[in-house]
Write a structure and sequence with these properties.
Blueprint: E1 7-8, E2 11-13, H1 19-29, H2 34-45, H3 59-68, E3 69-70, E4 75-81, E5 87-92, E6 98-105, E7 110-113, E8 117-118, E9 136-137, H4 140-154, E10 168-171, H5 181-192, E11 204-208, H6 212-221, E12 225-229, H7 235-241, H8 250-258, E13 269-275, H9 283-292, E14 298-304, H10 318-330, H11 361-372
Parallel strand pairs: 2-3, 7-10, 10-11, 11-12, 12-13, 13-14
Antiparallel strand pairs: 1-2, 4-5, 5-6, 6-7, 8-9
Helix pairs in contact: 1-2, 4-5, 6-8, 9-10
Amino acid sequence: MENPVQSSGARRNLVGLSRDEIAAEMKAFGAEAFRARQLWQWIYNRGATDFSVMTSLSKPFREKLAEAYVLERPQISQSLTSIDGTRKWLVRFPDGQEVETVHIPEEDRGTLCVSSQVGCTLTCKFCHTGTQRLVRNLTPAEIVGQVMIARDALEEWPSPQDDRQLTNIVLMGMGEPLYNFDNVATAMKIVMDGEGLSLSRRKITLSTSGVVPMIHRCGEELGVNLAISLHAVTDELRDVLVPLNKKYPIAELLEACRTYPGSSNARRITFEYVMLKGMNDSPAEARALVKLLEGIPAKVNLIPFNPWPGTSYECSSGTAIKAFSDIVFEAGYSSPVRQPRGRDILAACGQLKSESVKLSKAELLRQQSEEAQPA
């Protein structure tokens, strides 16, 4: 199947290609090897969207490139800004599918929440994205493209070294990144390249619901920070909240965390724990969580549940959250309570969802038939 963001007619899109892929393209194009490095810097360091601005290349060469290639970003079909400054972009791809990308500004950082799939292959009960079935994986171009359109909006080209508004990336948007690992890895290697988008692997966090066989590979190949969507301390409850637990139960998940490459007290694994009223927020569960984390360099992010239309879950009270946090903190684990951001535009944790749907063949034929009917 043709990559939906990799071509525009007969012209191939260079955005989303790795260093080796751009080098291969230039070799096949008959260009000198150093042209690949020049293109890399123009595309990923300077954010060029048109070959005409590439002044270090000769005009005839630029014209030849424009005949064979394009520099396409995904489109922004909707842009929303929260009262707290959080920005959410609904990003549309050439095949009409959409995902959401969120930028969260803070005093000392700016975090971009990036999606890895249209919809999600998982069905976590408390997550709005989980109610949207998986449509497809995103390509490297579509993942990198989210970072690039954020840089466009923040006017951060060329890639700044200091005083950035986009300092961190979290793969916590729509989708399970470890079920699209090859494309995520290609995209993050582009993002981490020092001559390109230039974000340190220490500023990138990949969040997983617990795809155990892929966790070690993620550490070996990317070395990024790891976050685990835990949300329960017993298999009985986690089977309900995070159905993937039936395949990879808590004990297996925590063993994968204990052996995650590069984890240390300086690089702790983050355990995300959404606070659900009367479900997982008792002092006894806080103490059980502490026992589970024994031997793992860890910190716990307590996430007040962010409501979305149609949910039956409620957020724990402030008192319950504080009591839970105090128990975890007193046991020696950092346990900050994440402040909800962008709730008013459904941009907070667990609220992302697009209108993209995967149609069956029958549904598609019926839709086409209806569209063909005279008005």
